[in-house]
Amino acid sequence: MSTSLKDLPKVNVDLKSELEGFKTGSMKKAETQEKNVLPTAEDVKQERQHSELIQGVESFKTERLKRTNTQEKIVLPNAQVVKQEKVHQNLLEGVEHFDKATMKPTQTQEKNPLPDPEAIEQEKEKQNLIAGIENFDTKKLKHTETQEKNPLPTKEAIDEEKKA
């Protein structure tokens, strides 16, 4: 199926002469930039997951759900707890709105006197004694030889006593 010459579109003579005299060497070099960037494999994967999720939600059948009963676990306070809360709240209000001007001045008396000097001295002596025992230097001791003053009888003496 080749097209015949008469079927081809007619070109204006001026344009035809310009096309024939055109020199490609006079053209400027240009870098081509692709403006329609293709998505990455990760983008395609995320889009596919998203569309599957949407399709799953849209095609979900509610008949497959099971009926459940919810139980509320909120326990209301009983009368005793409410009474305690009111008492506590009244105490807090009393403390917050207390009028200090109604207070009377008082004299403080010390009821826990310090111990007398003799008791302090006895306690110091006791602490010094304990410290002396705890910090005793065993290197200051002299070496001694132990002598038995009540020697055990010999074997012969034991045999003689058995015979007698």
UniProtKB/TrEMBL annotation:
The keyword Hydrolase does not apply. Its main location: cytoplasm. The keyword Metal-binding does not apply. One of its GO terms (cellular component) is cytoskeleton. It comes from the Eukaryota. Keywords: Cytoplasm, Cytoskeleton. One of its GO terms (biological process) is actin filament organization. One of its GO terms (molecular function) is actin monomer binding. Residues 136-148 have a biased composition (Basic and acidic residues). Residues 98-164 are annotated as: Disordered. This is HsjCib isoform3. It comes from Hodotermopsis sjostedti. The gene is HsjCib.
